[in-house]
Structure formats: structure tokens, C-alpha cells
């Protein structure tokens, strides 16, 4: 093609894109609902602040909207409402925060009547605040943020975005923060944990310099943006003292902040889940804490380990009607709950000791065994104990061979000692004795547990086996989980979720992400190759529709994943355009292009077996109402 002609066509394409941009919208409906979040005191019910904005895609939003209530660490209620109907949200806001000042109810109801849906979106902040003095979260102050992309797969309005916020990193430690965040993002998405869903995620790092390096101890935060601290010096929880700053910082990033991660500059174990995921960049524990806490918040599941109190979500059942029958290894033999077998196991002892060890007196515990199980496991976690000789672990007078994870130093780690012998009926004692006095003050027993199992036919411990495994709560109440130790929600040292959680992960993410990123309309001038020597080029317009899909299946960056596929169907005025099946672009003669198009995209992956809400399917419609020729005449 002549370069001048190419230039002309490019400019036509640009003009055309400008023209058609407004006609490209998310289908089948405007998928961006409104979101109202209110924080209020759980006792006085006084609203402290609110936010209102357009949320990102929420697919399969129930008719009455979505709502969620959670308690923040300071004991406030966090109420979140998502709805396509701003009027419904306004009423929520009013009923929750509207009557706290005497005498304003009247004003408010007038304000409600006067505000139209359109102005509501713009005015809601001043509407609530001017009438009630309930501040907008957007007005709270937050530290300066230098936002850097870490791993970006697409536009934030159609991705789930995770943001690392820095705490305890000095201005000159920015490079370390970026290194730490990059390492953790790669660890949890490079080749494991979140790798298969990575095209649905973005990772960002938001740097704010701290005045002091590190995190606080003894319950006292340092001079840092979010005021992270430990209760004592022992390696356990890491808490934050400036939740408002963290909320406002995340809010300020808009669509780019779905899951805020506060990272405290400390080399050792520690963290917290909930509204904010709090982690440290500990080499041994940073990724471990991060992926476990993200499992809670993204998949919305509880624990799988014993001794907890919250067991819920796709990986938990409280009776034998388990929600993962479609994953059971013995599924073909399973008919109803009658044939569902619970793996035979019992937990005679479990303790979150969180105790500093000393050489004067061992930490010990007595428990009873029924004597009816042929195998048992002694499970514990420790910190501040880098050497085997520092600690003796003794059960009924027998010293157990434990050896610290190499290079663990004083960081926390988890140990399992499997014993193929029966605990005799009656009382037993397990004790932990600190042998090295120099470790006093750092040596800590974090947790200890005894589990007993039936034989190999009664309890299938193999990885990859999906069944019904009993989990025991802090009150020794039994619930069920799908695998023995395949899931990081139980065994925090494994880097992966079980298949049941992975399926839940896909479904949670695809509720907030549409498989179709965009549908682009264009016009292309097709040169008539029969007569290339004519003085001016002869040709005709072609109408193009191009589909941008989330890069899964054959569009994955690393090449096609064989266990995934996209099936794409183009329908025009009710007829399937067979020739374009499974193609991402459609090209038709301009004069034949007018009509109603439906583009249906179905994603299949072996990681999802049950998709009740049709989240792996997306359908967009678009009407082409004018030809390229006509549109160009209008431009000229
Ligand atoms: C929030 O900030 C805007 C703009 O600065 C201001 O108009 C509004 O009054 C503030 N609202 C509250 C509740 O502080
Ligand atoms: C992922 O990569 C890390 C670091 O290279 C490695 O330690 C780990 O074994 C890999 N995991 C898998 C599942 O390949
Ligand atoms: C650091 O100190 C300055 C000056 O005292 C203060 O204005 C700023 O808020 C502090 N920054 C943080 C993150 O605490
Ligand atoms: C699987 O089903 C078969 C046939 O019902 C049964 O004999 C076997 O014990 C089952 N295995 C497990 C682990 O449940
Ligand atoms: C939990 O209950 C089982 C069954 O009653 C019992 O054998 C076990 O010892 C109990 N464990 C604890 C820690 O109380
Ligand atoms: C030593 O540890 C034991 C077991 O945790 C505890 O009961 C005891 O109070 C500790 N003694 C001192 C002096 O801290
Ligand atoms: C073990 O069982 C015996 C007999 O029932 C009881 O006296 C004892 O207190 C139990 N020990 C523990 C640690 O529960
Ligand atoms: C389209 O792709 C799907 C998924 O790979 C496949 O099952 C189907 O046979 C393909 N259809 C055509 C017509 O190639
Ligand atoms: C589909 O493709 C075939 C072969 O390229 C062509 O002959 C036929 O006209 C096409 N059909 C339509 C409806 O475009």
C-alpha cells in the first residue's frame, strides 16, 4: 500500500474509533453498579463516615442488591451495599445514618425527594455530609502515594486489583519495598497459588515513605503511615493503628484497590486478616501469610486448620451434604449422603500456646487417648529456635526427633511428626523444654496439636484424594473439609489451594471480572487487488467487530493452557455466523453489516466443574446502525 494511503486509512480508523467509542458499552447491561460503604459505631450506631461510588463489574448481582456487614478491628461496623439502584442505596444511607441528628429528618426526606438519580451520583457526598456531618471517606487524609505497577494484566475496571502499601520503609528504602512487594507478588502468582487466575489480577505497589524504619513493638507504633505494630516482641499478630489513613489511601486509588495489603518492614513472621491483609516480607512467612489471608478475603472461606472458630465457604460443611460432591474422588460410588464416608480421625489435643519458653519449667499438656487409632501426628509451630539442640519435644518420656527448617533462623515455622503407632488408652503428656538459656526471650511455642488416624483404608491421607475429612474447632466441634492436607487454608506451608478452593477462586473473581474486556468496532478499506495499477485505488469498506478477551486459554501470555478453552459464537439477527465461530474478530462487507449482533463467549477450564451462576459465560450485544460509508460522509 502507498504510505499516504496507509496514513489516510489510519486517520479514518482514528476518526471512526472516536465516533464509535461512545457506542461501545458493556453488555448485556451496564455492569457497573453503585456501591455505598458506611462505617458506624456498633453501639451508638452513629455513622462515622461513608463512601459512595460506581463499583466495578458485579455479575449476577441479586435483584435486591448485595450487602455485607463486617466488624472492623476497632469494633466498628462496616456496611457495604452494592446495587444498580442508587435510590435503594440512598434509602439505606438514610435509614442507617439519617436520624442521628434531631430535627433533620424532614430536611433529609426533602433532599431525598429532590435528588434525582443522576445528581445523586455527583452529590451524594455533600448530600449526606451537608445534612448530617457524616464525612466522606474521600475527605480523610492519607499519606502521599507513589503507585508503581508490579504485574498488570489489564484495565483495573475489569480486573481484581491487589495493592501493597508500605509501612516502616524510609524514603531511601523505597527500592527495598518494591523488591519485597515484587518478590511476594511473583511468589503467589508466578508458578503456584494464583498462577492460573493471574490474567484476572493486577498487582500494584503504593509507596509512602515512613519517618522511622521498621514496625512498632510493645503495642507502640512507630512514626509510619499506617502505624503497624506488634503487641509485644514475640512473633505473632501485626496490627495497625491508622485504619482511616489506610481506608482513605485505598479509596483514593479507586478501581485500582480491591484488596489492600499493608506490608510492615520487618523480617519475621506476623500478620493479620480482615479488612486489611497485614503482612511482613519475611522470607519464610511473607508469602505464606499473604496467600492464606487472601484466600479468606478473595474466596470468602474460613479456616481449614483445627482449633479455629470460623469454618464457612465452599471448602466447609457442617453436615454430610458437602458442597464439593462434584470433586469427590469416589464420586461414582457415592449416592446421596448414605454412602459418604468420613475419614476416621480425632483430635485429642489442640492448643494455641503462644508462649515464651524458659529453661526453668517446660510447657506441657496432658490429654487422653481412646487407644483405638493406629497412627498419630504431633504437630507444632515454633519461633526463636534455630537449632535442634535448643529444644526438646517429649511425649510420654520419649524425645521426638525434630529438626528446624534449614535457614529458618529465629523466624516461625511448622513441624509435623508422624508416628505409625497407637497411643495407648488413657492419659498422655506432651512437653516442650527449652534447653538453651540464650534463647529465653525469643524462643516461642506458637501452637501444638495431636491428631489420631485410622489405618490407611480408614483414613486416606494421600495428596490428591478428595473426600470428607473432619476438622475440629477450638470448641472441638466437627466440621468437614475436602482434602487431608492439600490446601493452604489448612496446611499454611503448602503453596496451593485445593481444587475446591480454586474453583471458588475462579467464581469469586469472575463475579467481578467480565471475560470480555471490550468490543471494538472499526472500518477497514480493502484494496481491490485485481486492479492495483489504477491511478486511484479501487476498493470497498469492510466492517469489523473485534473482541478483546481476558487473556486465558489460547491467549495466555505463556502460550495456550491445554486444559482451558474459549468457545466464541457470533450471531447476527438470530443467525449464527458459522464462519466466525471461535474467532475474535468479525469482518463483513459494509452494506451487509447492519443489524443486531450477539457475541457469546464461553470459557471452559478443568478447574471449574460447577458454575451455577453462569459466570464462565459472557454475552454482549451490539447493534450496527450505520455503514462505514455513511459514517465517513458525516465526518467529512
Ligand atoms: C469534602 O471535601 C469537599 C471538597 O474539598 C468539600 O466540599 C466537602 O465539604 C467536604 N466534606 C466533608 C464532609 O468534609
Ligand atoms: C515455583 O517457583 C519457586 C521459586 O522458583 C520454587 O521454589 C517452587 O518450587 C515452584 N513451584 C512450583 C509448583 O513449581
Ligand atoms: C513524618 O514527619 C513529618 C514531620 O514531623 C510529618 O509531617 C509526617 O506526617 C510524618 N509522616 C509520617 C508518615 O508519619
Ligand atoms: C470407594 O467406593 C467403593 C465402592 O463403593 C468402596 O468399596 C470404597 O471403600 C470407597 N473408597 C473410599 C475411599 O471411600
Ligand atoms: C474432642 O472430642 C473427641 C470425641 O468426643 C474426643 O475424643 C477428643 O479427646 C476431644 N478433643 C479435645 C481436644 O477435647
Ligand atoms: C516458664 O514457662 C512455663 C511454661 O510456659 C510457665 O508456666 C512459667 O510461668 C514460666 N516461668 C517464667 C519464670 O517465666
Ligand atoms: C483422662 O481421663 C481420666 C479418666 O476419665 C480423667 O480422670 C482425666 O482427668 C483425663 N485427663 C485429661 C487430661 O483430660
Ligand atoms: C470452538 O472451540 C471450542 C472450544 O475449544 C470447541 O469445543 C469447538 O469445537 C470449536 N468450534 C469450532 C467450530 O471449531
Ligand atoms: C464462509 O466461508 C466460506 C469459505 O471461505 C465461504 O464460501 C462462505 O461464503 C462463507 N459464508 C458466509 C456466510 O460468509
From TrEMBL:
Instruction: Determine if Signal is one of this entry's keywords.
Output: yes
Q: Where are the transmembrane segments?
A: none
A Pfam family annotated for this chain is Peptidase_M64
Gene3D superfamilies for this protein: Collagenase (Catalytic Domain)
Gene Ontology molecular function: any one: metallopeptidase activity
Q: Which InterPro entries does the UniProt entry name for this protein?
A: MetalloPept_cat_dom_sf (IPR024079), Peptidase_M64_IgA (IPR019026)
| Residues in the signal sequence | 1-20
Q: Which keywords does this chain's UniProt record carry?
A: Signal
The name this protein goes by in its record: IgA peptidase M64-domain-containing protein
Which organism encodes this protein?
Obba rivulosa
Q: What is the lineage of its organism?
A: Eukaryota, Fungi, Dikarya, Basidiomycota, Agaricomycotina
Amino acid at each position: 500500500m502507498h504510505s499516504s494511503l496507509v496514513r489516510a486509512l489510519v486517520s479514518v480508523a482514528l476518526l471512526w474509533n472516536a465516533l464509535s467509542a461512545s457506542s461501545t458499552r458493556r453488555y448485556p447491561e451496564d455492569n457497573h453498579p453503585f456501591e455505598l460503604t458506611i462505617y458506624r459505631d456498633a453501639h451508638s450506631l452513629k455513622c462515622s463516615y461513608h463512601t459512595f461510588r460506581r463499583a466495578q463489574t458485579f455479575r449476577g448481582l441479586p435483584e435486591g442488591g448485595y450487602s455485607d456487614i463486617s466488624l472492623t478491628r476497632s469494633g466498628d461496623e462496616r456496611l457495604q451495599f452494592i446495587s444498580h439502584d442508587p435510590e435503594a442505596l440512598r434509602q439505606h444511607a438514610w435509614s442507617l445514618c439519617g436520624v442521628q441528628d434531631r430535627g433533620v429528618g424532614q430536611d433529609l426526606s426533602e433532599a431525598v425527594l429532590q435528588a434525582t438519580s443522576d445528581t445523586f451520583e455527583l452529590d451524594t457526598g455533600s448530600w449526606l455530609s451537608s445534612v448530617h456531618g457524616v464525612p466522606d471517606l474521600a475527605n480523610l487524609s492519607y499519606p502521599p502515594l507513589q503507585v508503581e505497577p508490579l504485574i498488570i494484566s489489564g484495565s483495573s475496571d475489569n480486573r481484581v486489583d491487589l495493592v501493597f502499601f508500605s509501612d516502616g520503609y524510609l524514603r531511601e528504602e523505597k527500592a527495598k519495598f518494591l523488591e519485597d512487594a515484587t518478590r511476594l507478588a511473583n511468589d503467589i502468582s508466578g508458578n503456584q497459588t494464583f498462577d492460573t487466575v493471574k490474567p484476572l489480577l493486577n498487582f500494584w505497589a503504593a509507596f509512602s515513605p515512613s519517618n522511622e524504619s521498621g514496625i512498632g513493638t510493645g503495642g507502640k507504633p512507630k512514626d509510619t503511615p499506617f502505624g503497624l505494630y506488634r503487641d509485644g516482641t514475640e512473633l505473632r499478630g501485626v496490627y495497625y493503628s491508622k485504619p482511616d489513613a489506610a481506608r482513605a489511601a485505598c479509596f483514593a486509588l479507586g478501581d485500582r484497590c480491591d484488596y489492600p495489603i499493608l506490608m510492615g518492614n520487618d523480617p519475621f513472621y506476623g500478620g493479620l486478616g480482615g479488612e486489611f491483609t497485614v503482612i511482613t516480607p519475611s522470607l519464610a512467612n511473607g508469602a505464606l501469610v499473604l496467600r492464606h489471608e487472601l484466600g479468606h478475603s478473595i474466596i470468602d472461606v474460613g479456616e481449614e486448620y483445627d482449633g479455629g472458630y470460623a469454618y464457612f465457604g465452599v471448602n466447609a460443611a457442617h453436615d454430610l451434604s458437602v458442597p464439593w460432591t462434584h470433586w469427590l474422588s469416589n464420586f461414582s460410588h457415592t449416592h446421596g449422603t448414605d454412602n459418604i464416608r468420613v475419614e476416621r480421625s480425632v483430635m485429642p489435643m489442640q492448643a494455641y500456646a503462644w508462649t515464651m519458653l524458659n529453661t526453668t519449667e517446660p510447657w506441657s499438656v496432658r490429654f487422653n487417648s481412646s487407644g483405638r487409632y493406629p497412627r498419630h501426628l504431633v504437630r507444632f509451630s515454633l519461633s526463636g529456635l534455630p537449632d535442634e539442640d535448643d529444644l526438646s519435644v517429649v511425649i510420654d518420656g520419649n524425645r521426638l526427633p525434630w529438626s528446624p527448617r534449614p535457614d529458618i533462623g529465629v523466624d516461625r515455622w511448622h513441624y509435623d511428626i508422624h508416628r505409625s503407632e497407637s497411643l495407648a488408652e488413657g492419659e498422655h503428656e506432651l512437653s516442650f523444654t527449652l534447653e538453651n538459656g540464650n534463647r529465653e526471650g525469643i524462643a516461642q511455642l506458637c501452637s501444638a496439636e495431636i491428631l489420631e488416624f485410622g489405618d490407611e483404608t480408614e483414613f486416606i491421607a494421600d495428596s490428591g484424594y478428595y473426600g470428607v475429612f473432619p476438622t475440629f474447632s477450638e470448641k472441638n466441634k466437627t466440621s468437614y473439609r475436602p482434602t487431608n492436607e492439600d490446601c493452604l487454608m489448612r496446611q499454611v506451608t503448602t503453596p496451593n489451594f485445593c481444587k475446591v478452593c480454586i474453583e471458588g477462586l475462579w467464581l469469586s473473581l469472575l463475579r467481578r471480572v467480565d471475560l470480555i474486556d471490550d468490543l471494538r468496532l472499526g472500518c477497514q478499506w480493502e484494496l481491490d487487488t485485481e486492479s492495483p495499477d489504477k491511478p486511484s485505488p479501487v476498493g470497498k469498506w469492510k466492517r469489523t467487530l473485534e473482541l478483546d478477551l481476558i487473556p486465558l486459554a489460547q491467549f495466555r501470555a505463556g502460550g495456550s493452557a491445554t486444559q482451558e478453552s474459549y468457545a466464541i459464537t457470533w450471531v447476527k439477527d438470530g443467525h449464527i455466523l458459522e464462519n466466525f465461530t471461535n474467532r475474535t474478530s468479525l469482518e463483513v462487507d459494509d452494506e451487509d453489516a447492519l443489524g443486531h449482533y450477539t457475541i457469546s463467549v464461553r470459557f471452559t477450564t478443568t478447574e471449574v466443574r460447577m458454575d451455577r451462576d453462569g459466570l464462565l459465560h459472557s454475552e454482549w450485544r451490539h447493534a450496527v446502525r450505520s455503514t462505514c460509508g455513511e459514517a465517513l460522509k458525516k465526518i467529512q
